Amino acid sequence: MSTALALVGLNCAVAAITAAGAVYFTRVRMPRPPVGRYELPDVAVMGVVVVAAPLVYLAAPRTAVAVVFGLVLCAALQFTLAPLIGGGRAWSAAGALVAATAGCAFADLPIAVTALTDVLLAVAVVGVANMWAQSGMRSAHAAWFAGMLCCYDLVATGLTSVMDRFATQVMGLPFAPLLAVTQGRPPVALGLGDLLLLVLFPLVALKAFGRAAALLAAGVGLAVSASVSLLFGLGVLTGAFPLLTALGPLIVLQHVLWSRSRSGERTTAEWRAGTPRSVAADAPTDPDPALLLALEPTDVDALRAELSRGDWLAVVDGRAVGSGKSPGQARRDARLRGCESVPVIRQHWAGPAAGETTGDTDTGRLP
Amino acid sequence: MFGTALSQLRYGMAILRNRRIRPQDLERIARDLIATLAEFGEPGADSALLPGQAGAVDPAVRRTVTERSLRATARAATRHTAHYRRTFDALGIDPSSLTPETWDRVPVTPKEALRALPAAFVSAASAPALMALTTGTSGTPTAVWFSRAEVEISVAMSTVSAVLGMGLRPHHTMAYAGCSRATLPLLNVEESVTRIGASFVQIGTVDPAVALDRLATPLGLRGKAPQITHLTVSASYLSALVEEAERNGWRAKDFGLESIGVGGEVLSDPLRERAAVALGARISTAYMMTEALPSGGTPCAEGHLHHTTEFGHMEILDPVTHEPTPPGAVGIIVQTPYVPYRDCTLLLRYATGDLVRRPGAEPTCELAHLPATSPVLGRWSGPRSIAVPTRSVLNLLESEPDIPLPARYALVDRPGGPVLHVLVRRTPAAALLGRLEERATTAGLALDGIVLHDDPATLPPTGPVRADLREHTFESVRPAVRVAGQA
């Protein structure tokens, strides 16, 4: 397979996995814990795992690495498929796929191993991204995660040989954390972290800001992936490239722009309810118009009540609709006079007009 | 999520090992529950397994946990409290050998023992921080000391309960119309309500007219329901509110109440119905007492009171012999609140004096996995309190509009049985008397007669109720009374 064709295939696979993630997100409701949601410390924990994993794997035997990844992929496959086909069948399907991959490895069928591993990886990434997004991961969390991975990828891939050595160690292994199309030198492949963030951020953006943000996030991700592929195709890039170093800042930028334009993010409940914007962002912070109108009530005389200082008025839309010797009695009087809504209750006090000082000597005004 | 999981793990380990609970862990669980609701709009499917939510537990696991909890509580009480050190030494009981089957070797602790010397029940290893006094309607309040950790644990559990049990949300406003000196419940309600993001209003047991006025007054706050939505109140004070509402022209639509939680006293069925009509709210009642906190009971749809097994061990015993009460019979609730939920005032087999009837058959309701009794029938004060329980008398009296609320009555013993003296609005009231006598007979009340009074001065001494703990205010919503000579 030519490198150009492999690069096109890789980007098509990324697009397909991103789309699959979005379809899963909108149609499948994953179980969630009774208490808890995604928080910033969770991002830190994930960061530690991401940073430590390659270092641990580099020190571990290849067989051990394959076994660990096989178990992780099996579990991820199970919880991804469980909402679709049931928990028991999901275990069977996951076990069968993992066993088939391991069998192909023992039978020395490298192309089959790569293809099956890619399928396992794609399903697992769709599941993990959905689990995070549906567990309340916010755009801010994704941005922190992307920012952190951006720095890490620069160090591990761009400035040191950690990821290069890691890719060399796991290339060809069953369950390798690489979406590989070819295994040449360099291989046409995408790392698990890159793929996860490419799939994850559109989902989080969809939940937090809506479809436009999700499409933009997916488009930006694919554009970055395609641009890097193009540079490889043109021969500008020849070795491992830190994709997240390019993608991370763009995710952070998108988060900042969308957050500012939408004045916040939607919660999972608001997303499921189809609320266009965060309710908190739309919560009015201006004084209640009903209270503003109640400051200078009209139609007090129409009540035909003998009001004295300290009596209470029920006011609706600026009109007095009831009165009483106490707040509750004014509210009840409003009801007796046919007012169905809950009025504003205020004390009867002819306060100073706007701009008027309190230095006059009129009687009948409370200080 | 990792932080929440860690807190839940630590809490679970503390329970399994009967070690000290970190209040921060429970606070974290409560805080995360609120955050979960804000994010997802509803609690998760397994919320019934949260602390105090009465989820079903495997019976074998429950028995093991019960045995370990009883032993741990008995060990702590024997090591650190004067009362139980002397009791166990005198009887030669090894707390580590106790099982649920041999638990009856531990003598029942009468309320009088705690009342006489509260310090004898306070663990020497604890740091007492708050003295909670019971209402003391019997004349002498019972003092119960709580540590800071216990108070924090109690607040966290109240928060979970308010979110899941009462459905309290940030747009709600809760009013507390219990006694303002009841520090522990007041603290619990205020803290849990405001932690949820809801608002809190302290009313106290003021003139019922003032309380109703406050409940009817619109709040005018952005993001909040227009009026007070939830009310916590004692049964007798609720009856005073109903009396005021019914007699002074209040209608349910004057209020914005959604839920009224009643506690501390027996809530009769007629009062529940009248309150729901007068105030337009759902009336709920649960069983909880200061001494046994956080053990308590939750009503089910079939009318049972189900007692939690998570926080304490509950027995129903004969009030005199302290033998187990057979199914269908009436006995008193005897509670042992567990360590580590309690670490300050430690009580083993505490006789609450609250009378309940054991169901004749096994319940089949949604809480059938928890021990069930009838709702509290009254307080044990002798054989007459079983023959003529408070609940039956209140069911008889509180359905009659011609009897002012709270119902004032006295039972006076005569050779043929007790005579029920009742304060009514006016006499003669032959029709009312006829109805009461007929309904008392139908209910099987062993009364020798009923005497109506329209003057409190002629009524034999009646028992005090919580509504009598009237708090003064400077405000008045009643028409001013013209004092003679002032005009």
Describe the 3D structure.
The complex is a heterodimer of chains A (367) and B (487). With 367 residues, chain A is mainly α. Chain A has two domains: 3-280, no CATH class; 289-347, no CATH class. Helices cover 63% and strands 6% of the residues of chain A. Chain A is built from 14 helices and five strands. In chain A, the strands form two sheets. Chain A has a three-stranded antiparallel sheet with strand order 4-3-5. A two-stranded antiparallel sheet of chain A has the order 1-2. Chain A is elongated, with a radius of gyration of 31 Å. Residues 360-367 of chain A have low confidence and may be disordered. Chain B has helices at residues 2-17, 23-40, 59-80, 82-91, 111-116, 148-164, 183-196, 208-216, 235-247, 269-279, 383-387, 390-397, 430-443; strands spanning 128-133, 143-147, 173-176, 199-202, 230-234, 259-263, 282-285, 287-288, 296-299, 305-307, 312-317, 330-337, 350-357, 372-373, 378-379, 409-414, 417-423, 449-453. With 487 residues, chain B is of the alpha/beta class. In chain B, α1 crosses α2. At the A-B interface, α2, α11 and α14 of A face α1, α2 and α8 of B.
